[in-house]
Amino acid sequence: IPLSQQFMTSKERTIVFIPGYQSVVPSTKSIYLEQFCQQHNLTYVTFNHDFSPESSVETWYKNFLCILKNQTEGQLILVGSSLGVWLALLLFHRDEEDAVQIRSRICGIVGVGTSVNSTERWLNEIESEEKRIDRAYVYRRPSLYSSTGYYDILVAKLLDSKEYILPMESGKVYVNCSVIMLHGICDTDVPYHHAIDVLKLLDVPLGKICELRLIHDGDHRLSRQEDLIRIHGALLDLISFC
C-alpha cells in the first residue's frame, strides 16, 4: 500500500489523514494537512486505499489498522474524509487486540463530510432484490467525482462489508476522545443529517469535545480554501484538548 509520510522532529503526536472512497493522495486536503504538520512540528502519515474490485471495508479497515500499528507512535489525531470517518470509528467499535491498543492512543478525530455505512446505502440503491444478492453483479453508481460519471461497484464488495456496519439504529460506540465533524449543508452526496445521526451514535465522555460544525455553502469534499481553514481550526481545538 503506497504510503506518504512526513516525519517531523517531534514524534510525540501524529496526524493521520484517512482519504475517502476513490480518493487518492496527494490531494488538496492531504497537502494542506502536511503543511499544517510542518508548521506545528507534528508527524504526518497518509496513505492510499486498495480500491481493487474485490476490496471491501474489511480490506480498507485492516490495511488502515496495519498502518497505524506499524507506521505511527505516540498520540494520534485522525482526520477522516467521508469513508475515512467510518474507518476511524471502527477502531472504537471492534475488539481486535491491535484496535484496542491503538484507540488508547487516539486523542481526537476530525470528520470531514462524514459517511458511515455507505456500502449499505449503496446496496439499498439497487432496485432489484435479485441483483442485491448477486455477488457478480456490478452496480454502476452515478458520481460527480468520476471522469466517467459513475463508479462500477461489485455487489460482492457491498455484501462483504456488512460485518463492518456500525449500529446506527440500536447501540452506542464509546469513543474516549474529542470528536469534531465538519459537514457542508449543500452536500448532495451525504446530507448533513447523516452526520447528526453519527454524533448521536457516539458515547463521548464529559469534558471531551463532541461537535458538528455546519458549513452553510459547503459541499461533500470541503476542499476550498475556506473549508481548509475550518479544518485548521478544528485541529487546533483538538490539539488543545490532547
TrEMBL record:
Top-rank taxon, per record = Eukaryota
Q: Which InterPro entries match?
A: AB_hydrolase_fold, ABHD10_acyl-thioesterase
* UniProt KW Endoplasmic reticulum keyword: no
> Which UniProt keywords are given for this protein, alphabetically ordered?
Hydrolase
- What sections of the sequence does the record tag as coiled-coil? none
SUPFAM superfamilies, A to Z: alpha/beta-Hydrolases
Q: Name one GO molecular function term.
A: hydrolase activity, hydrolyzing O-glycosyl compounds
* UniProt keyword Hydrolase present: yes
The record's PANTHER family line, in alphabetical order, gives:
MYCOPHENOLIC ACID ACYL-GLUCURONIDE ESTERASE, MITOCHONDRIAL, PALMITOYL-PROTEIN THIOESTERASE ABHD10, MITOCHONDRIAL
Official protein name in the record: Uncharacterized protein
Tell me the classification of the organism that encodes this protein: Eukaryota, Metazoa, Spiralia, Gnathifera, Rotifera
